[in-house]
Inverse folding.
């Protein structure tokens, strides 16, 4: 497979960086092709601005202006480079530390600037409805999240005080990856990262290698398809009747 490793951690001597290095070696040993975006090392600009689109209007409308710039090939060069990587990839590995229940701002800014209208969303099907939630423009790609947390392992368990990790990451897993059409694999949590011993690091690296070895065959999270299970923006009455909350959107 062709794999893009999207990495967002500021410290090259961190556990995250060590795991990234172990993952890159594992992928090479498995015969995969690899490209990387190390956002902090790149000095990635996470801030959307009119300069991204060459917008000449008095009022910036990000969706409209990004779509026009994408269609005309006039997006900023750094955005086009990242889109080329993503277009090339069969699989995206996204690795980051969980800060305030979300990714670092630099990674959020990568999604904001790279996944523009016309490229990752806002593309209509033949019936005019948008392709999204399982049928988006990035269909056929897989997404795998590697996330470090400061919490001990039970904290992000289904009954943990922080909430189930899949629920905490719902905006990323469902709202970014699945929305754009990707098949989404269950995230790998590396817990208590700041307290990890060398033995812990070796154990986590082995867990990562095990997951990487099976990425092509792993069953994705069974999110419900918008076209199959929804009317308008609501689940059909016959789908998961009486069930509410995030679990209602899982097959």
């Amino acid at each position: 497979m062709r794999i893009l490793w999207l990495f967002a951690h500021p410290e090259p001597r961190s556990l995250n960086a060590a795991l990234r290095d172990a993952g890159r070696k594992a992928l090479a040993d498995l015969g995969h092709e690899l490209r990387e975006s190390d956002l902090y090392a790149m000095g990635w600009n996470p801030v959307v601005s009119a300069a991204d689109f060459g917008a000449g209007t008095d009022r910036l409308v990000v969706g409209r202006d990004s779509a026009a710039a994408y269609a005309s090939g006039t997006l900023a060069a750094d955005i086009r480079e990242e889109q080329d990587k993503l277009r090339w990839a069969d699989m995206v590995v996204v690795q980051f530390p969980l800060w305030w229940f979300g990714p670092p701002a630099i990674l959020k800014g990568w999604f904001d600037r790279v996944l523009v209208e016309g490229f990752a969303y806002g593309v209509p099907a033949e019936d005019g409805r948008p392709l999204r939630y399982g049928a988006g423009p990035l269909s056929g790609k897989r997404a795998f999240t590697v996330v470090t947390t400061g919490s001990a392992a039970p904290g992000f368990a289904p009954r943990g005080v922080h909430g189930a990790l899949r629920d905490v990451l719902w905006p990323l897993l469902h709202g970014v990856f699945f929305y754009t059409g990707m098949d989404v694999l269950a995230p790998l949590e590396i817990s208590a990262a700041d307290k990890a011993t060398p033995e812990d690091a070796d154990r986590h690296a082995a867990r990562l290698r095990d997951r990487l070895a099976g990425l092509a065959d792993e069953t994705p999270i069974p999110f419900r398809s918008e076209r199959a299970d929804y009317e308008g923006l609501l689940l059909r009455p016959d789908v998961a009747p009486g069930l509410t909350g995030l679990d209602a959107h899982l097959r």
Observations:
- The beta strands are 2-7, 33-38, 91-97, 142-148, 183-184, 188-190, 230-231, 234-235.
- The first strand starts at residue 2 and ends at 7.
- The chain has a mean pLDDT of 94.
- DSSP finds nine helices and eight strands in the chain.
